[in-house]
């Protein structure tokens, strides 16, 4: 399959359903009153991380995603159906940008993650909502608000723990195929690998990490030579870089110079990535006697003044592979506290689009309503009262907590009864509040009385 790491798509969330104007009509019931129901909310579109995907190739064909609109309200107080939400699967490591503003909406870095990319419209209100003592037969209803629509630019930066780096033909793909189930193309000509390929390396029971093979780099890659540095962005999120070196390059090139070249290109691409942990991995040691290989490697290390870790392996004879994989696994486990998104300095993952409507109703889930009338209707009194009662319950609970601590030390009962009095006061004051809230206050008061009695009897 073709590897695609950039795509533009359009998302259109569902609009809210219309409110209905209806009146109850029944035999022997004159003036039945308004009974037009609300519409349903429109469907929202979410981007969901799908670990089965590795490319954005699917978005080449299907570029527009539309969520369902909410159903219209009907007579007999029937509410319209909610529009179904839509989930768009994207590979892990996808960055989602708003094409219009350039704003980074979010990035998918965890398998369970979901990012809202277009908010569904808020439902229209039926005429029941508009009835009042002075307007008993309102011929008034509202339309649902439209769903958000936006163009998105998707950028894929694959996620892996360990990235492979090196000249073409260094043996990167061979190493990946030797240690994982991935089957990248391998051949003895440069640029066999044309796109990045991840593979899962299982080191032991429940111990595994992801290794990423990328196309080879050559001198001048930063300015477009070879396949350029386009694919280097896929090792941006890797935490450890394995720099593969062919100890006996067929071209007879100096290996120290090759290592320096690759690092210079890496630095040109991104200094921060170049400063990451890098291990030198001398490959193809099966091509010469061991002692000769050792001498060659030591010489190279001396010339490079290399202070980091290094390994000598052969992907064909599998010499040194075990040590390398265990060391990499240990390193990955040690550094697992660092989240990849921290490395990138990207914002938090559960980001919502910034362009929110300036409505007070924003607090309601799934709400993008703007009409001032609707705001008034929904902020009805019982809601405010219940909120106040809840606050009071919290205050009593806090008071009880505070009072019981010093009460253990000194005169417990006196202090506890004070709290009871406080709780009772709250009950009295919140008589009009919701019965649930009242119950909660009573429960707290009862608890305090019980505790006080128990302590009294102990004495
Ligand atoms: N003798 C020997 N040959 C190897 C070893 N590893 C890789 N090769 C050979 O080196 C050649 C290139 O290997 P690849 O794995 O395709 O190299 P690559 O780094 O992925 O190259 P590009 O994809 O072109 O960047 C192949 O012919 C491999 O068989 C090794 O450990 N020993
Ligand atoms: Mg390759």
Automatic annotation (TrEMBL):
**UniProt-annotated location(s):** Cytoplasm
Q: Known InterPro entries for this protein?
A: G_OBG, GTP-bd, GTP-bd_Obg/CgtA, GTP1-OBG_CS, GTP1_OBG_dom, GTP1_OBG_dom_sf, OBG_GTPase, P-loop_NTPase
For this chain, one GO molecular function annotation is: GTPase activity
Per the similarity annotation, which family is this? Belongs to the TRAFAC class OBG-HflX-like GTPase superfamily. OBG GTPase family.
Write out the entry's keywords from A to Z.
Cytoplasm, GTP-binding, Hydrolase, Magnesium, Metal-binding, Nucleotide-binding
User: Is Metal-binding found in the keyword set?
Assistant: yes
Q: In what residue span(s) does the Obg domain sit? A: 1-159
Q: What protein does this entry describe?
A: GTPase Obg
Residues that, per the record, bind Mg(2+): 173, 193
Q: Which cofactor does it need?
A: Mg(2+)
User: What's the subunit arrangement here?
Assistant: Monomer.
Q: What organism is this sequence from?
A: Stenotrophobium rhamnosiphilum
């Amino acid at each position: 399959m073709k590897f695609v790491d950039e795509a533009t798509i359009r998302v259109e969330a569902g609009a809210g359903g219309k409110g209905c104007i209806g009146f109850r009509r029944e035999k022997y019931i004159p003036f039945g009153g308004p009974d037009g129901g609300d519409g349903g909310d429109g469907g929202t579109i979410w981007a969901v991380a799908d670990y089965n995907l590795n490319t954005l190739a699917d978005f080449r064909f299907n570029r527009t995603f539309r969520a369902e609109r909410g159903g219209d309200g009907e007579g007999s107080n029937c509410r319209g159906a909610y529009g179904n939400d839509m989930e768009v699967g994207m590979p892990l490591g996808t960055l989602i940008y708003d094409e219009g503003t350039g704003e980074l909406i979010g990035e998918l870095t965890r398998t369970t993650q979901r990012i809202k990319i277009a908010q569904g419209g808020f439902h229209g209100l039926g005429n029941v909502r508009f009835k009042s003592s002075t307007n008993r037969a309102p011929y008034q209803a509202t339309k649902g608000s439209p769903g958000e629509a936006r163009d998105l630019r998707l950028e894929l930066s694959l996620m892996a723990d360990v990235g492979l780096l090196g000249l073409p033909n260094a043996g990167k793909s061979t190493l990946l195929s030797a240690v994982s189930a991935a089957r990248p193309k391998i051949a003895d000509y440069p640029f066999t690998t044309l796109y990045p390929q991840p593979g899962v390396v299982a080191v032991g029971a429940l111990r595994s990490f992801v290794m990423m093979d990328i196309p080879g780099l050559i001198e001048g890659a930063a300015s477009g030579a070879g396949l350029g540095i386009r694919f280097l962005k896929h090792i941006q999120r890797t935490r450890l870089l394995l720099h593969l070196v062919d100890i006996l390059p067929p071209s007879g090139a100096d290996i120290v110079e090759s290592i320096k070249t690759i690092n210079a290109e890496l630095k040109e691409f991104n200094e921060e990535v170049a400063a990451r942990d890098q291990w030198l991995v001398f490959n193809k040691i099966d091509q010469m006697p061991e002692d000769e290989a050792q001498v060659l490697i030591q010489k190279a290390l001396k010339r490079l003044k290399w202070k980091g870790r290094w390994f000598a392996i052969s992907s064909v004879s599998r010499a040194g592979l075990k040590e390398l994989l265990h060391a990499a696994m240990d390193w990955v486990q040690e550094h697992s506290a660092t989240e990849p998104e921290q490395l990138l300095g990207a914002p938090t993952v559960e980001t919502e689009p910034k362009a929110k409507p300036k409505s007070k109703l924003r607090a309601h889930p799934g709400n993008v309503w703007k009409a001032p009338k609707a705001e008034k209707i929904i902020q009805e009194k019982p809601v405010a009262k219940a909120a106040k009662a809840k606050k009071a319950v919290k205050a009593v609970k806090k008071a009880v907590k505070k009072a019981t601590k010093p009460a253990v030390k000194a005169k417990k009962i006196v202090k506890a009864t004070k709290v009871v009095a406080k709780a009772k006061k709250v009950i009295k004051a919140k008589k009009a509040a919701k019965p649930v809230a009242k119950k909660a206050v009573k429960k707290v008061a009862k608890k305090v009385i019980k505790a006080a009695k128990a302590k009294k009897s102990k004495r």
